[in-house]
Amino acid sequence: MTHFEYAPAPESRSVVELKESYGLFIDGEFVDPLSDSYLSSVNPATEEVLAHFAVGSDADVDAAVRAARRALPKWSKLPGSERGKYLFRIARILQERAREFAVLETLDNGKPIKESRDVDVPLAAAHFFYHAGWADKLEYAGYGKNPKPIGVAGQVIPWNFPLLMLAWKVAPALACGNTVVLKPAETTPLTALLFAEVCQQAGLPKGVVNIVTGAGATGAAVVAHAGVDKVAFTGSTAVGKSIAAAIAGTHKRLTLELGGKGANIIFDDAPVDQAIEGIINGIFFNQGHVCCAGSRLLLQESIAEEVISRLQHRMSTLRVGDPMDKNTDVGAINSLAQLQRITDIASSGDAEGARRWSVDCALPERGYWYRPTLFLDVTESHRIAREEIFGPVLAVQTFRTPTEAIEKANNSPYGLSAGVWSDKGSRIHLMAENLKAGVVWANSFNKFDPTSPFGGYKESGYGREGGVAGLASYLVQE
Amino acid sequence: MTTAAHLVHLAASDLEDARRDEASLRSFISRLPGVDKVGLEARAAALGTRSIKTSAKAQLIDLAIAMVDLTTLEGADTTGKVTQLCAKAVTPDPLDASVPAVAAVCVYGDKVADAKAALSTHPRGAGINVAAVATAFPSGRASLAVKLLDTRDAVDAGADEIDMVIDRGAFLSGRYGQVFEEIQHVKQACGQAHLKVILETGELQTYDNIKRASWIAMLAGADFIKTSTGKVPLAATPANVLLMLEACRDWHRVTGEKIGMKPAGGIRTTKDAMKMLVLVHETTGDEWLTPSLFRIGASTLLNDLLMQRQKLRDGHYSSSRYVTND
Predict the structure, then answer these.
(1) How confident is the model over B6-48, as pLDDT tens digits?
(2) pLDDT of residue B318
(3) Domain count, chain B
(4) Residue of chain A with shortest Cα separation from B58
(5) At what angle do helices B207-219 and B176-190 cross, to 10 degrees?
């Protein structure tokens, strides 16, 4: 027998050229913020400061919204085929600069390079390609003969898939003839700023896309601005509720994509080896920083013990560490604040009597890390079964019958995602029909495609992104 | 009669039951958890993106060379051809003595004596096994008596290993018992020779079938399970190899016994071979990273491994003129 170890396979960061500091992207140019205030973005795997970025004040946001309003008449009246050309061009540039985007995303976010390389960036490009195709076909989308853009879209996106969430927001907005003011997350603004360069490279008319970086107050200013006609937010349910309250009674339209506590349901006739991979992918993909993560594992009682044993064995093969290494499976937690949140909720699991099991792996000395963890003996009343942890922590429960599985899966304020694993087609249909979740994956998990609408039930939000349904979020039906 | 549950958890007693009679075997086989094609292929593809660099690459290249079953299975095979093959097996790279010898040469039964004779002339030849394909290879379309005679003939000629084919016709028509018994008989005919059981994945077509055939072969006493003859497409694909390695892993979970695995057919490049070894490392674990438990059936792969090895050593690619064509 030979003992084998992968040799280090670090992706080179030389492809990325970071500026020391970034201004705001308003009216097609990078400008210094009126606020004269800056924050820094940190590599969560090393705690190294990557760059400083401007904090948009109310006045900066106002300038961005005005630029978007000025650009709106011309952009919205361009023939769809012309708008489509810009989107195709952006998509191609994203592909051409894919490596640069992937490396920067991994540096700024902490996710493994293989994920930014194979998932985030290709999917972001795919969203632009897909919506480029819609730009000149909107009259056939089923929203009336001559659907119109809503106007200026204020978009606030999270830190878990920075570029991909940008693409989910910007691509449909532009395809439908809207202009955009986008506020990236404060821990991960860098790929959005690189995207601003792509807009310049593509010759996108000034003011069509404006990117205003900053923290919560900047996002609140975007949401509150009277010149914004549509607000699109992806993030936590708490912030989503405050946004809904803030814009209640205004003319603004709103779509929200919020938290989740997805149930991944494994029946005794499941394809077991693939189900194990689906469990892993459901909760450890992107360190569990996934709103639709399969964070609750529901196992049919008759197979629970065996599946848990196999799952633990599989978890122990996960490679946790340097996100820039091409063989890393689980990267860094995005921020110290998020690490503390995960640590806090997970320790409630210990306190409330659930049984913790974690992978016994070495962690780097610097940076923010959390061991892939599962909790056994979890009941419905445990906090870890109810609250979104947004980290690599899985709560394992059991069920006896399909009815009980449905009850448990739906017993949540959230309703974003679910997975069903069974070889029986009729059972999968039964489950899909009864699960209150925006997406139900059958014998798979965390699969995304621009043609497939994504969004929540209940406190996971409303409105859809992607597919024909997603266009409705950026169109006024006439 | 109670409803048969899916065999997610296997116990040693389940394996004993399965061997009792044809009905028990059928029940066992049909209760094995199914295989989801999309998920299996996705996992195999994901492992295919593992990056093998520097020291890891050097280590796996030498390991892959030592795992090669260097093969010639042509109607045109002659004593001369087999002799050349054996020389290559012993000294894959005449310019570099640090290159390990391959695990075995694999020939038709009537060429076993030639191979034995050729290997005996080299000092390093004693460590190299001779494997013979048997049982009316590659189609397996002959009576059991003929198949057993074919096997004994190769063993009598000195074959250390027998690569048999299963009766795919019997398998596809649901006669699992016949497939099982045939393997048992061949195993008996092998005597001391190791038995590799070829499933011919390209003819079984579905992953469920490949999984079931793997378990039948293991139950019947296979020392190795092997994907293919090399004569039919869809042979040693990463998904097929992953699936069969999972079967080996699960067998070990239940019995503690290690059954070997041999992908064959379509493995031509170093990259292909590295992917196979990654599948082993991440599925059964490193205990299978040895020629006694993992073989790669190949004819043209060896030269690509040698060229990649030269490249690692010298820092540049050499011409194919610097590897020998045998």
Answers:
(1) 899 999 999 999 999 999 999 999 999 999 999 999 999 999 9
(2) 83
(3) 1
(4) A7
(5) 40
CA-based end-to-end distance of chain B: 60
DSSP conformation letters of A290-304: -TT---EEEEEHHHH
Residue A189 lies in a domain: yes
Contact between chains at A7 and B38 (C-beta distance less than 8 A): no
Strands A209-211 and A179-183: parallel
- Tens of pLDDT along A394-445? 999 999 999 999 999 999 999 999 999 999 999 999 999 999 999 999 999 9
- B43 and chain A in contact, CB less than 8 A: yes
* Positive or negative torsion for Cα A190, A196, A200, A201: positive
Range of the domain at A410: 263-442
Least CB–CB distance from B39: residue in A4, A268, A271:
A271
Tell which residue, A165, A174, A163, A179, has the closest CA to residue A27: A179
| Distance (Å, whole) CA B41 – CA A239 | 39
Closest CA to A268 of A307, A231, A321, A326: A307
Whether residue B246 lies inside any domain: the answer is: yes
Is residue A11 a part of any domain in this protein?
Answer: no
Chain A residue nearest residue B280, CA to CA: A4
Are residues A426 and A324 part of one domain? yes
| Closest Cα in chain A to B36 | A271
pLDDT of residue A421: 98
Q: Does B41 touch chain A (CB under 8 A)?
A: no
Angle between helices A425-434 and A402-410 (to 10 degrees): 30
Residues A464, A469, A471, A474, CA torsion sign: negative
Q: Which of A275, A307, A444 is nearest residue B38 as measured by Cβ atoms?
A: A444
Q: Is residue B63 within 8 Å of residue B289, measured between CB atoms? A: yes
Residues 6 or more apart whose Cβ sits within 8 Å of residue B236 = B227, B228, B263, B264, B265, B266, B267, B276, B297
Residue (of A453, A449, A377) closest to A142 by Cα position:
A453
Q: Rounded distance, CA B261 to CA B199, Å?
A: 11
**Does the distance separating the beta carbons of B290 and A274 come in below 8 Å?**
no
Query: How does residue A217 score in pLDDT terms, banded at 50, 70 and 90?
Result: very high
Range of the domain at B292: 36-315
The per-residue pLDDT for range B207-216, each reduced to its tens digit, is 999 999 999 9
Which residue stretches of A47-111 are H helix? 58-77, 80-96, 98-109
Letter for the amino acid at A227? G
pLDDT of residue A1: 64
Q: Out of A176, A199, A291, A292, which one is annotated catalytic?
A: A291
- For chain A, the domain total comes to 2
Angstrom distance (rounded) from CA B137 to CA B5:
37
ipTM of this predicted structure? 0.95
Q: Report the candidate in A219, A301, A211, A221 with the shortest Cα–Cα distance to residue A265.
A: A301
Chain B residues whose beta carbon lies within 8 Å of the beta carbon of residue A270: 33
